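During the no-cost extension, the postdoctoral fellow (Dr. R.K.) reprocessed legacy sequence entries with the updated structure-token encoder. One reprocessed record is reproduced below for audit purposes.
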Amino acid sequence: MKKSKLITAFAVLMVSTSSIMAQRLDKMQWFNEPENWEIKSPTTFVMQTPAKTDYWRITHYGFTVDDAPFYYATYGGEFETKVKITGNYKTTFDQMGLMLRIDQKNWIKAGVEFVDGKFNVSTVVTHNTSDWSVVELDNAPRYIWIKAVRRLDAVEVFYSLDDKTYKMIRTCYLEDNCPVQVGIMAASPDGDGFEAIFDHFEVKPLPDLRRMEWAKKQSQH
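Re-encoded structure tokens follow.
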């Protein structure tokens, strides 16, 4: 294949790949499947979070837990994922949102965490040990959107109140060039569980930056 045709074919592949938006809920799989969950519609997923479940590794508390529900599909390369989350939070540390996971020691969860009666946008990043960052929301919204963008070895985390204006709350490391489990999670570390509603979960593959740079260089020769 001639160089120009190779580059053209690559560009077409990137365009067609990046247009893939929806992840079918019925094509995903469970890690720690809860007793009660339901696909309400092609775009709405509901689960009842089991009591005393969480994701955390070591830091500050000295324990490791890896037993909360996580419903996911596996993606390689670079991507953007987002979801609208609505939680009937009841107990401190009730939480729900997105999760990106390589294995038990390397994962990110981002969403809402209910702490002392207040809503917080929360991100936990784990590479062997966990760290936790929160942004308190002045007014408790009924729902928010959470978005994560994976580019090379970094993930950017955003939230929005209207799915139009997004604010970035975290940039963190995640190993690149390896498959990632991408999906939705909810946990109730101290409580008896709560209803978590997820709407319009989607994953959009993005053009790989390294390959795009390679194609650009090839076109210059």
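The chain has one domain: 3-219. Residues 1-20 have pLDDT under 50 and may be disordered. The remaining legacy entries will be reprocessed before the final report is submitted.
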